[in-house]
Amino acid sequence: MTTPSPQVADHLDRRVSVAPMMDWTDRYCRNFLRVISKRTLLYTEMVTTGAILHGDRDRHLGFDDAEHPVAVQLGGSDPVDLAEAAAIAEQYGYDEINLNVGCPSDRVQSGRFGACLMTEPALVGDCISAMQQRVGVPVTVKTRIGVDEQDRWEDLERFVRTVADAGCLSFTIHARKAWLKGLSPKENREIPPLRYDVAARVKQAFPELEVILNGGVKTLADIQSHLDVFDGVMIGREAYQNPYLLAQVDRVVFGCASEPLSREDIIEAYLPFIERELAAGTPLNRMTRHMLGLFHGMPGGRRWRRTISEQATKKGAGTEVLRAALEAVGSIEDAA
């Protein structure tokens, strides 16, 4: 495995993280994933500077102490606004501020942030510099390997060098280019080919930087293999669709001595949070929708998903739904 450079060695341990995913990695999802892995770095959904500066800050930034280590991802392109939003996020207690330079959706482009910022490396550098002047936590970037026709190595090298010269020491690279026109966000996650070789070239060209790989990571073996080349691995949809993937990470990657929790133990450990949120008026399905993949690929997994999907949306639904779903699965031993 590679060793992060001295400049970033005292930053967060980013060897394994879960990507910021819109409509998915909310606080309910993060609390659930934290039960499964204590060490994996978790990210919020992307939060725009406008939402923080002019919206309900507690709704957008509130989180539980149990979620640490947790990073917030910001969307924006105005250095002044980003600096202020970063300062507010730091006050909330986030361990890292990440700038989104990778999302290709039309809505993000219309706000002049996301992947379209790859064409403006100097502006991204100004944003990083402004945020770093306001906060003491690490400020990082999540980006692609290219955008539209700007996908030459020279373009990516110039982008990374410019942003690094502005003070960014950690880059998470989704190893696909983004097409801003012609592909949907979902298609942009699947159609452009994965180019791990290009992401690896960034690490080779900038050994002093922390380079995190994102894209196509599906197994523990994938994680271990990529850690031979990169400083860290960010897992995307697989961590959501198959969350039990994270169960082995603390022991295998981080060297923790404790054995991973069983699926049944994970459910039991998550119940106090669910009960607390139910008492506060949170509907059950806002939490259980993140649990649907817990039995992914196992006998009984379909019964687990069906029971939760059918019952968790009912008025007054409580933790008895999870008990019923477990009963539908059968014993953990029989399902394994």
Please, could you describe this protein's structure?
With 336 residues, the protein is an alpha/beta fold. 42% of the residues lie in helices and 15% in strands. The chain has helices at 27-36, 49-54, 57-61, 79-92, 106-110, 121-132, 153-165, 185-188, 196-205, 220-226, 237-241, 249-252, 263-279, 285-288, 301-311, 320-329, 332-335, and strands spanning 16-18, 41-48, 70-75, 96-101, 139-147, 170-178, 210-214, 232-235. The chain has an 8-stranded parallel beta barrel with strand order 1-2-3-4-5-6-7-8, surrounded by 5 helices. The longest helix has 17 residues, at 263-279. It is globular. The two termini are 31 Å apart.
The low-pLDDT segments are 1-10
The secondary structure category is alpha/beta
**Helix share of residues?**
40-55%
Radius of gyration: 20 Å
Beta-strand percent range: 5-15%
Termini separation comes to 31 Å
The tally of helices reads 17
* Overall residue-averaged pLDDT value: 91
Q: In terms of topology, how is this protein built?
A:
Elements: E1 16-18, H1 27-36, E2 41-48, H2 49-54, H3 57-61, E3 70-75, H4 79-92, E4 96-101, H5 106-110, H6 121-132, E5 139-147, H7 153-165, E6 170-178, H8 185-188, H9 196-205, E7 210-214, H10 220-226, E8 232-235, H11 237-241, H12 249-252, H13 263-279, H14 285-288, H15 301-311, H16 320-329, H17 332-335
Parallel strand pairs: 1-2, 1-8, 2-3, 3-4, 4-5, 5-6, 6-7, 7-8
Helix pairs in contact: 1-13, 4-6, 6-7, 15-16
